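Give me the fold.
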Amino acid sequence: MSEDINAKIDTLVKSNDVVLFMKGTPLFPQCGFSSKAVAILDHYKLKYETFDVLQDMEVRQGIKEYSEWPTIPQLYVKGEFFGGSDIMMEMHDAGEMATLAKDNGLETVSE
């Protein structure tokens, strides 16, 4: 991975409390796993940023190397990698997503 791509990813991860690298956008996810990840974040009304890896192939490959995780979507909270939609679903089912949000003081969106 080039230093430029690594720096770009690092900036995205560290400049947002919650960032989801996904395929597509929250309004038009391009895979079921990305759709599931967005649904979980929306369920908790968390404020988050996304990056559509389909729009930048270097980031699409680079994020896998950055996290040492082979699949997308990828969730980062306060600069820390948490995993993909499977881990998000497990955390949701166990009631841990609400705890994650509370413990990290994550901002929610108002309705």
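The chain has a mean pLDDT of 94.
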